[in-house]
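To: structure subgroup
Subject: Chain for Friday's discussion

All,

I'm putting the inputs and outputs inline so they're searchable in the archive.
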Amino acid sequence: MPGKIFINYRRGDDPGFAQALLGRLEQVFPHEQIFMDVDSIEPGLDFVRVLEEQVAQCDVLISVIGKNWTEARDTSSGSRRLDNPEDFVRIEIESALAQEKRVIPVLVGQASMPHADELPDSLKPLARRNAVRLTHERFRADTESLIGALQRALKAAEEARAKQQAEREHQEQAAREHQEQVERVRQEQAERERQAQAERERQEQAERERQAQAERERQGQAERERQAQAERDRQAQAERERQAQAEREHQEAEAKRRAEEAEARRKTEEEQKAEAERARIAAREAEAREKAETKTRIDEEKGGKLQRSRMGPVLIAASLLVVVLAGAIGAWYVLSPMLMLGPLTAAQEQALKPAGTFQECSKCPVMTVAPSGSFFMGSPTTEPGRDSDEGPQHPVTIGAQFAVGRYAVTFDEWQACVADGGCNGYKPSDQGWGGGRRPVINVSWTDASMYVAWLAKKTGKPYRLLSEAEYEYVTRAGATTAYPWGDTIGKNNANCNGCGSQWDNKQTAPVGSFAANGFGLYDTVGNVWEWTQDCNHDSYSGAPTDGSAWSKGGDCGSRILRGGAFDNYPKVVRSADRTGLNTDIRSNDFGFRVARTLVAPSATP
């Protein structure tokens, strides 16, 4: 590549010498070999780096020095330009000196060569460079000397580049040859190692076959010995059986003799006993007939027959009345939609049937009995909208019936806890949507845990949060589809962002605003997310299969929420969708419902 010449000059200092010099050089050198101005630098670029790169592309820098070159001053600050580290002239010369380029000072007019003490430290080496002087009178002769120096410098630079290129190519060729030699040695070594490995494997295979043959021979010998021992054992067993048979036959003969003698004695004794028994029976029958005749006479005398005929129907009617009343009371208890206010007795719990309801205080949640049963937890891989944490799908068996809040806990029910001194006195915001029968929101898992602790203490019964498995079980209520009502979201089945209800993506709806599911429960999907007891796990690998809460492993600093909420898209309110969040997070779409363990039903129908 031909060398380049960089012309460095300060505008207004050279009285046209720079342009004249450019014109003269272009008569000798191609235009593309001469670089004079950086006409413009793109916005955002580091101009120092741009100038350094331009200087780096040149082999010779000509520094045009006029009479005022050293003392030229900035019009705004009045400071000397050479003292400014960002002065273009300074930057270009500094870069050339730092890159060890040929720097030729060109003195124009009456300019003199700067002294080192007049220059910044980075430009002091310029004072040691031989200069060329240009005058108007001898301009052509002066430039001839400069052109000769430039041609020699460019040629030297080109020869140096050619030498460097040849050296690089030589080094690259040597490196390639070395690499090829290394690769040949590596391949030869690899081949030797492969052959050695093959030999080792052959020897190992031969040793395995030898050992296998020895093992077969050992097993064959052991089998022959086993068969010989088995034959000896068989013969010994046959001898023992023969002796035992002979002993049995002897004992049987002796036993038969003794039995025949005993039978003869027994028959004699039985005949004697039978005769005595016949005599006793005859005596008892005679006595009984006499007593019966006597009692009949007495009853007739006292009117006994009339009395018994009148009382019989009365006693029967009274008995029937007791049975009917007991049945009616039992039927009312089992079938009534609200059994009573107040904690249930053990007998009342045992009598509960699936879909039965109860309420154990006036402001307690209404509870619905969920049956025992089995289901597949999680979603199949083909279900649209499925997330990886919904698998693997696995069977879960709920071994006993339990009670579930018919609705999510409401603001009224939460307020009852606060009024009773519970729930740490916390009063969550209703976002201006209204409290009352709307589900309580802005409650964390810790808040929900405080509520169930208060409810358990107030009633003396084992209230708790649902396990995640229980929540999906009562949500599905026997359904295997994506939603409790089918595989599509439909319209007005729940409250979500796309469910087609009047509350969609706006606010919560009052509890019970949509149809109940197959277990008689409301709003198990949509409206609010509901906290469960389980620690957060990112899959069901190792999950319990009995419906209990998964409280080991995983991240117990965060807990699982189920059901989705009014501001979630339909895919999030599927029966299998789940998420886990920190136990202290509160949000305007977080709520919960309660569960209660029940005494097992009585086995008596």
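Points worth raising on Friday:
The radius of gyration is 55 Å.
The longest helix spans residues 139-302.

D.
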